[in-house]
Amino acid sequence: xxxxxxxxxxxxxxxxxxxxxxxxxxxxxxxxxxxxxxxxxxxxxxxxxxxxxxxxxxxxxxxxxxxxxxxxxxxxxxxxxxxxxxxxxxxxxxxxxxxxxxxxxxxxxxxxxxxxxxxxxxxxxxxxxxxxxxxxxxxxxxxxxxxxxxxxxxxxxxxxxxxxxxxxxxxxxxxxxxxxxxxxxxxxxxxxxxxxxxxxxxxxxxxxxxxxxxxxxxxxxxxxxxxxxxxxxxxxxxxxxxxxxxxxxxxxxxxxxxxxxxxxxxxxxxxxxxxxxxxxxxxxxxxxxxxxxxxxxxxxxxxxxxxxxxxxxxxxxxxxxxxxxxxxxxxxxxxxxx
Length: 338
Hints:
Blueprint: H1 2-22, E1 25-31, E2 56-62, H2 66-74, E3 81-83, H3 87-93, E4 100-109, E5 118-122, E6 137-140, H4 148-157, E7 168-171, H5 174-182, E8 188-191, H6 199-204, E9 205-210, H7 211-215, E10 218-226, H8 227-232, H9 234-252, H10 257-268, H11 273-276, H12 299-311, H13 328-336
Helix pairs in contact: 9-13
Protein backbone atom coordinates (compact mmCIF):
# COMPACT_ATOMS: atom_id res chain seq x y z
CA UNK A 1 0.00 0.00 0.00
CA UNK A 2 2.81 2.39 0.88
CA UNK A 3 4.51 1.58 -2.44
CA UNK A 4 1.26 2.25 -4.31
CA UNK A 5 0.78 5.59 -2.52
CA UNK A 6 4.31 6.67 -3.40
CA UNK A 7 3.77 5.62 -7.01
CA UNK A 8 0.59 7.66 -7.24
CA UNK A 9 2.26 10.68 -5.62
CA UNK A 10 5.19 10.51 -8.04
CA UNK A 11 2.82 10.17 -10.99
CA UNK A 12 0.84 13.21 -9.88
CA UNK A 13 4.05 15.22 -9.48
CA UNK A 14 5.28 14.23 -12.92
CA UNK A 15 1.96 15.01 -14.53
CA UNK A 16 1.83 18.38 -12.77
CA UNK A 17 5.31 19.22 -13.98
CA UNK A 18 4.46 18.14 -17.51
CA UNK A 19 1.26 20.21 -17.45
CA UNK A 20 3.14 23.31 -16.25
CA UNK A 21 5.64 22.86 -19.08
CA UNK A 22 2.94 22.13 -21.67
CA UNK A 23 0.89 25.18 -20.73
CA UNK A 24 3.24 28.00 -19.71
CA UNK A 25 1.74 31.24 -18.44
CA UNK A 26 0.79 33.54 -21.32
CA UNK A 27 2.14 37.07 -20.82
CA UNK A 28 0.73 39.81 -23.03
CA UNK A 29 2.58 43.11 -22.72
CA UNK A 30 1.13 46.30 -24.19
CA UNK A 31 2.78 49.02 -26.22
CA UNK A 32 1.63 52.25 -27.82
CA UNK A 33 4.76 53.70 -29.46
CA UNK A 34 7.02 51.15 -31.21
CA UNK A 35 10.63 51.06 -29.96
CA UNK A 36 10.01 53.67 -27.25
CA UNK A 37 7.86 51.03 -25.53
CA UNK A 38 9.90 47.90 -24.98
CA UNK A 39 7.15 45.41 -25.87
CA UNK A 40 7.48 46.00 -29.61
CA UNK A 41 11.14 44.94 -29.80
CA UNK A 42 11.78 43.17 -26.50
CA UNK A 43 12.42 39.65 -27.76
CA UNK A 44 13.45 40.25 -31.36
CA UNK A 45 16.55 38.30 -30.31
CA UNK A 46 14.89 35.20 -28.81
CA UNK A 47 18.18 33.79 -27.53
CA UNK A 48 18.03 36.42 -24.77
CA UNK A 49 14.73 35.01 -23.51
CA UNK A 50 15.98 31.84 -21.85
CA UNK A 51 12.68 31.05 -20.08
CA UNK A 52 10.29 31.83 -22.93
CA UNK A 53 8.35 28.80 -24.08
CA UNK A 54 9.08 27.05 -20.79
CA UNK A 55 7.53 28.92 -17.87
CA UNK A 56 5.85 31.61 -20.00
CA UNK A 57 4.92 32.61 -23.52
CA UNK A 58 5.00 36.17 -24.80
CA UNK A 59 2.88 38.41 -27.00
CA UNK A 60 3.23 42.15 -27.67
CA UNK A 61 -0.18 43.82 -27.94
CA UNK A 62 -0.60 47.23 -29.58
CA UNK A 63 -3.06 49.85 -28.28
CA UNK A 64 -3.81 53.18 -29.97
CA UNK A 65 -3.79 55.21 -26.74
CA UNK A 66 -3.77 54.92 -22.97
CA UNK A 67 -7.55 55.26 -22.65
CA UNK A 68 -8.07 52.11 -24.70
CA UNK A 69 -5.19 50.46 -22.84
CA UNK A 70 -6.86 51.07 -19.46
CA UNK A 71 -9.99 49.42 -20.79
CA UNK A 72 -7.92 46.48 -22.00
CA UNK A 73 -6.19 46.10 -18.65
CA UNK A 74 -9.54 46.18 -16.84
CA UNK A 75 -10.93 43.55 -19.22
CA UNK A 76 -7.94 41.23 -18.80
CA UNK A 77 -6.71 41.67 -22.37
CA UNK A 78 -3.12 42.12 -21.16
CA UNK A 79 -1.23 40.75 -18.18
CA UNK A 80 1.23 43.67 -18.08
CA UNK A 81 0.40 47.22 -19.21
CA UNK A 82 2.76 50.11 -19.82
CA UNK A 83 1.17 53.14 -18.13
CA UNK A 84 2.58 56.62 -17.65
CA UNK A 85 2.74 58.96 -14.66
CA UNK A 86 -0.58 60.48 -15.77
CA UNK A 87 -2.47 57.23 -16.40
CA UNK A 88 -1.43 55.24 -13.32
CA UNK A 89 -3.38 57.50 -10.92
CA UNK A 90 -6.35 57.49 -13.31
CA UNK A 91 -6.39 53.69 -13.19
CA UNK A 92 -6.44 53.79 -9.39
CA UNK A 93 -8.67 56.81 -8.73
CA UNK A 94 -11.04 56.94 -11.71
CA UNK A 95 -11.16 53.31 -12.86
CA UNK A 96 -11.06 51.91 -9.32
CA UNK A 97 -8.31 49.37 -9.99
CA UNK A 98 -7.27 49.07 -6.36
CA UNK A 99 -5.43 45.82 -7.09
CA UNK A 100 -3.10 47.40 -9.64
CA UNK A 101 0.60 47.04 -8.84
CA UNK A 102 3.58 48.94 -10.22
CA UNK A 103 6.17 46.29 -11.00
CA UNK A 104 8.93 47.82 -13.19
CA UNK A 105 10.43 50.80 -15.00
CA UNK A 106 10.22 51.35 -18.73
CA UNK A 107 11.59 54.85 -19.33
CA UNK A 108 12.07 58.11 -17.44
CA UNK A 109 12.20 61.72 -18.61
CA UNK A 110 14.41 64.46 -17.20
CA UNK A 111 17.11 62.29 -15.63
CA UNK A 112 20.38 64.32 -15.73
CA UNK A 113 22.51 63.32 -18.71
CA UNK A 114 19.57 61.90 -20.65
CA UNK A 115 16.89 63.16 -22.99
CA UNK A 116 13.82 65.17 -21.97
CA UNK A 117 10.72 65.90 -24.09
CA UNK A 118 10.83 69.26 -25.85
CA UNK A 119 8.44 72.20 -26.12
CA UNK A 120 9.39 73.77 -29.42
CA UNK A 121 8.83 77.01 -31.31
CA UNK A 122 10.03 78.16 -34.72
CA UNK A 123 13.53 79.63 -34.88
CA UNK A 124 12.20 82.96 -36.09
CA UNK A 125 9.36 83.03 -33.56
CA UNK A 126 9.11 86.16 -31.34
CA UNK A 127 8.53 83.79 -28.39
CA UNK A 128 11.66 83.98 -26.23
CA UNK A 129 10.29 83.22 -22.75
CA UNK A 130 7.40 81.26 -21.26
CA UNK A 131 5.67 84.58 -20.51
CA UNK A 132 5.62 85.24 -24.25
CA UNK A 133 3.16 82.33 -24.64
CA UNK A 134 0.34 84.57 -23.43
CA UNK A 135 -2.30 84.74 -26.14
CA UNK A 136 -0.64 81.99 -28.20
CA UNK A 137 -1.87 78.62 -29.49
CA UNK A 138 -0.05 75.65 -27.98
CA UNK A 139 -0.47 72.05 -29.13
CA UNK A 140 0.17 68.68 -27.49
CA UNK A 141 -1.02 65.08 -27.75
CA UNK A 142 -4.06 65.36 -25.49
CA UNK A 143 -5.46 66.79 -22.27
CA UNK A 144 -3.95 65.08 -19.24
CA UNK A 145 -1.27 63.30 -21.28
CA UNK A 146 2.40 62.99 -20.36
CA UNK A 147 3.17 65.95 -22.63
CA UNK A 148 0.20 68.05 -21.51
CA UNK A 149 0.72 68.01 -17.73
CA UNK A 150 4.28 69.47 -17.90
CA UNK A 151 3.07 72.17 -20.29
CA UNK A 152 0.35 73.24 -17.86
CA UNK A 153 2.77 73.04 -14.93
CA UNK A 154 5.27 75.30 -16.71
CA UNK A 155 2.57 77.81 -17.61
CA UNK A 156 1.43 77.88 -13.98
CA UNK A 157 4.99 78.56 -12.81
CA UNK A 158 4.94 81.69 -14.94
CA UNK A 159 1.45 82.86 -14.00
CA UNK A 160 -0.32 81.61 -17.11
CA UNK A 161 -3.29 79.31 -17.52
CA UNK A 162 -5.03 77.70 -20.48
CA UNK A 163 -7.97 79.86 -21.69
CA UNK A 164 -7.78 82.34 -18.79
CA UNK A 165 -4.88 84.31 -20.29
CA UNK A 166 -5.97 83.98 -23.92
CA UNK A 167 -3.48 81.13 -24.10
CA UNK A 168 -5.08 78.16 -25.82
CA UNK A 169 -3.94 74.54 -25.59
CA UNK A 170 -5.25 72.30 -28.35
CA UNK A 171 -4.82 68.56 -28.74
CA UNK A 172 -3.80 66.75 -31.89
CA UNK A 173 -2.22 63.40 -32.83
CA UNK A 174 1.50 63.58 -32.05
CA UNK A 175 2.68 62.84 -35.64
CA UNK A 176 0.75 65.93 -36.85
CA UNK A 177 2.25 68.38 -34.35
CA UNK A 178 5.57 69.04 -36.09
CA UNK A 179 3.94 69.81 -39.46
CA UNK A 180 1.43 72.13 -37.75
CA UNK A 181 4.28 74.13 -36.22
CA UNK A 182 6.19 74.30 -39.52
CA UNK A 183 3.02 75.51 -41.24
CA UNK A 184 2.57 78.16 -38.51
CA UNK A 185 -0.85 76.85 -37.53
CA UNK A 186 0.27 76.79 -33.89
CA UNK A 187 2.92 78.69 -31.92
CA UNK A 188 4.38 75.88 -29.81
CA UNK A 189 4.28 72.09 -29.88
CA UNK A 190 5.17 69.44 -27.30
CA UNK A 191 7.08 66.52 -28.82
CA UNK A 192 8.82 63.31 -27.70
CA UNK A 193 11.36 61.03 -29.33
CA UNK A 194 11.62 59.99 -32.15
CA UNK A 195 9.69 62.97 -33.60
CA UNK A 196 12.18 65.52 -32.26
CA UNK A 197 14.94 63.78 -34.22
CA UNK A 198 13.39 64.73 -37.57
CA UNK A 199 16.17 66.73 -39.33
CA UNK A 200 13.68 69.02 -41.10
CA UNK A 201 11.99 69.90 -37.80
CA UNK A 202 15.27 70.44 -35.96
CA UNK A 203 16.57 72.81 -38.63
CA UNK A 204 13.49 75.04 -38.40
CA UNK A 205 12.88 75.10 -34.64
CA UNK A 206 14.36 75.74 -31.22
CA UNK A 207 13.46 74.41 -27.80
CA UNK A 208 11.79 76.88 -25.42
CA UNK A 209 11.93 74.45 -22.46
CA UNK A 210 11.95 70.74 -21.68
CA UNK A 211 9.73 68.51 -19.61
CA UNK A 212 12.56 68.24 -17.11
CA UNK A 213 12.56 72.03 -16.77
CA UNK A 214 8.85 71.90 -15.97
CA UNK A 215 8.63 68.90 -13.63
CA UNK A 216 12.04 67.38 -13.00
CA UNK A 217 12.23 63.62 -13.38
CA UNK A 218 9.01 61.96 -14.52
CA UNK A 219 8.18 58.31 -15.14
CA UNK A 220 7.06 58.43 -18.76
CA UNK A 221 6.30 54.73 -18.83
CA UNK A 222 6.15 51.93 -16.27
CA UNK A 223 4.90 48.35 -16.17
CA UNK A 224 1.87 47.46 -14.06
CA UNK A 225 -0.05 44.25 -13.42
CA UNK A 226 -3.06 43.19 -11.34
CA UNK A 227 -2.28 41.66 -7.93
CA UNK A 228 -4.21 38.39 -8.51
CA UNK A 229 -2.28 37.79 -11.73
CA UNK A 230 1.03 38.28 -9.91
CA UNK A 231 0.06 36.06 -6.99
CA UNK A 232 -1.08 33.20 -9.21
CA UNK A 233 1.91 33.33 -11.60
CA UNK A 234 4.77 34.77 -9.56
CA UNK A 235 7.46 32.27 -10.60
CA UNK A 236 6.73 32.68 -14.31
CA UNK A 237 6.63 36.46 -14.00
CA UNK A 238 10.04 36.51 -12.32
CA UNK A 239 11.37 34.39 -15.20
CA UNK A 240 9.86 36.85 -17.66
CA UNK A 241 11.32 39.81 -15.82
CA UNK A 242 14.77 38.19 -15.85
CA UNK A 243 14.57 37.73 -19.62
CA UNK A 244 13.21 41.26 -20.10
CA UNK A 245 16.04 42.88 -18.12
CA UNK A 246 18.60 40.79 -20.01
CA UNK A 247 17.12 41.94 -23.33
CA UNK A 248 16.94 45.59 -22.24
CA UNK A 249 20.59 45.54 -21.16
CA UNK A 250 21.51 44.13 -24.55
CA UNK A 251 19.84 47.10 -26.27
CA UNK A 252 21.49 49.58 -23.90
CA UNK A 253 24.97 48.18 -24.57
CA UNK A 254 26.77 50.59 -26.95
CA UNK A 255 28.38 47.60 -28.64
CA UNK A 256 24.96 46.66 -30.04
CA UNK A 257 23.93 50.13 -31.22
CA UNK A 258 24.08 49.46 -34.96
CA UNK A 259 22.05 46.27 -34.67
CA UNK A 260 19.53 48.05 -32.40
CA UNK A 261 19.08 50.74 -35.05
CA UNK A 262 18.35 48.07 -37.67
CA UNK A 263 15.73 46.57 -35.36
CA UNK A 264 14.14 50.01 -34.84
CA UNK A 265 13.99 50.60 -38.60
CA UNK A 266 12.36 47.21 -39.15
CA UNK A 267 9.81 47.84 -36.38
CA UNK A 268 8.79 51.31 -37.54
CA UNK A 269 9.85 51.65 -41.21
CA UNK A 270 11.39 54.99 -40.17
CA UNK A 271 14.77 55.42 -41.92
CA UNK A 272 17.99 54.74 -40.01
CA UNK A 273 19.24 58.38 -40.01
CA UNK A 274 16.38 59.31 -37.66
CA UNK A 275 17.67 56.79 -35.07
CA UNK A 276 21.42 56.57 -35.48
CA UNK A 277 22.57 59.61 -33.52
CA UNK A 278 20.55 59.07 -30.35
CA UNK A 279 18.85 55.68 -29.92
CA UNK A 280 19.66 54.12 -26.50
CA UNK A 281 22.49 56.62 -25.98
CA UNK A 282 23.33 58.70 -22.92
CA UNK A 283 24.07 62.07 -24.53
CA UNK A 284 21.87 64.66 -22.85
CA UNK A 285 19.38 66.26 -25.24
CA UNK A 286 21.19 64.59 -28.11
CA UNK A 287 20.54 61.14 -26.66
CA UNK A 288 17.71 58.93 -25.43
CA UNK A 289 15.51 58.66 -22.35
CA UNK A 290 16.81 56.98 -19.21
CA UNK A 291 15.92 53.31 -18.81
CA UNK A 292 16.84 51.80 -15.46
CA UNK A 293 19.21 48.83 -15.97
CA UNK A 294 17.92 47.25 -12.74
CA UNK A 295 14.31 47.72 -13.85
CA UNK A 296 13.32 49.87 -10.87
CA UNK A 297 10.98 52.86 -11.42
CA UNK A 298 11.36 56.29 -9.81
CA UNK A 299 8.75 55.90 -7.06
CA UNK A 300 9.39 59.30 -5.45
CA UNK A 301 9.16 61.03 -8.82
CA UNK A 302 5.84 59.37 -9.63
CA UNK A 303 4.38 60.45 -6.28
CA UNK A 304 5.55 64.03 -6.85
CA UNK A 305 4.13 64.11 -10.39
CA UNK A 306 0.71 63.03 -9.10
CA UNK A 307 0.74 65.95 -6.67
CA UNK A 308 1.38 68.31 -9.59
CA UNK A 309 -1.56 66.82 -11.48
CA UNK A 310 -3.84 67.48 -8.52
CA UNK A 311 -2.58 71.04 -8.23
CA UNK A 312 -3.53 71.60 -11.87
CA UNK A 313 -7.04 70.21 -11.35
CA UNK A 314 -6.46 67.03 -13.37
CA UNK A 315 -6.64 64.57 -10.48
CA UNK A 316 -9.21 64.69 -7.69
CA UNK A 317 -7.09 62.78 -5.20
CA UNK A 318 -3.53 61.54 -4.92
CA UNK A 319 -3.12 57.83 -4.14
CA UNK A 320 -0.32 56.74 -1.82
CA UNK A 321 1.94 54.83 -4.20
CA UNK A 322 3.38 52.56 -1.53
CA UNK A 323 0.01 50.78 -1.47
CA UNK A 324 0.33 49.95 -5.16
CA UNK A 325 3.90 48.64 -5.40
CA UNK A 326 5.31 45.18 -5.96
CA UNK A 327 8.96 45.48 -6.91
CA UNK A 328 9.77 41.98 -5.66
CA UNK A 329 9.62 40.55 -9.20
CA UNK A 330 12.19 42.91 -10.64
CA UNK A 331 14.37 42.69 -7.52
CA UNK A 332 14.55 38.90 -7.68
CA UNK A 333 15.15 38.97 -11.43
CA UNK A 334 17.98 41.50 -11.07
CA UNK A 335 19.69 39.34 -8.44
CA UNK A 336 19.79 36.42 -10.88
CA UNK A 337 21.65 38.55 -13.44
CA UNK A 338 24.42 39.80 -11.15
